[in-house]
Q: What sequence folds into this?
């Protein structure tokens, strides 16, 4: 637990440093229009890899904070997000079906480019492309509604790619509202005992300040 706390604190500290440095550059007029924001949404998660046909997507939530660059047309963006990832596995034993729901608490740091299309309407479409690093801090499994059990053997790290698209609306000179759909794919196995990789589709809404 101490190790997890140190890593989480490090991630948060780095995010604060990045924000402060970026804010200074913004004040100097060299880093575009940076805005701090909050993000919330719904996440549809599953696993890819070995026996991926037995897994289906589970629905959960996403919460976090962002540092976004609204400079047209291209800007770099950062985030610190809390995901609930996992999957639902369907097995059949002697004709009896069993569902196993796996939940993983994940802290994720995405870094991605966003291209905002030059559009004169109230909503500007955009696309995003980037990567992320994450730390899984807990994992549980519940079989057919029975008591949950821990299934994460150690702290699990991951990295992956992400792609998204959405729309941006300017509420005022300092406030922006975005809605986006994001797809991401992990590179590393969920755990040493689970030879599959995280995959998620998220619908996210953000408001900047």
A:
């Amino acid at each position: 637990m101490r190790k997890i706390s140190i890593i989480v604190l490090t991630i948060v500290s780095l995010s604060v440093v990045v924000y402060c440095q970026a804010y200074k550059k913004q004040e100097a007029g060299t880093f575009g229009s940076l805005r701090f924001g909050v993000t919330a949404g719904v996440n549809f998660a599953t696993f890819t890899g070995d026996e991926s046909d037995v897994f289906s997507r589970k629905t959960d939530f996403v919460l976090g904070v962002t540092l976004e660059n609204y400079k047209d047309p291209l800007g770099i963006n950062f985030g610190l997000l809390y995901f609930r990832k996992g999957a639902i596995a369907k097995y059949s034993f002697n004709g009896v079906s069993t569902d196993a729901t796996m939940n993983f608490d994940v802290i994720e740091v995405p870094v991605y480019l966003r291209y905002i299309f030059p559009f004169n309407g109230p909503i500007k479409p955009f696309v995003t492309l980037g990567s992320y690093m994450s730390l899984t801090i807990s994992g549980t499994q519940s079989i057919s509604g029975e008591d949950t059990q821990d299934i994460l053997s150690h702290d699990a790290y991951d990295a992956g790619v992400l792609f998204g698209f959405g729309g941006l609306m300017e509420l005022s000179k300092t406030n922006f509202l975005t809605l986006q759909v994001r797809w991401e794919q992990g590179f590393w196995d969920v755990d040493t005992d689970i030879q599959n990789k995280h995959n998620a589709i998220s619908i996210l809404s953000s408001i900047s300040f």
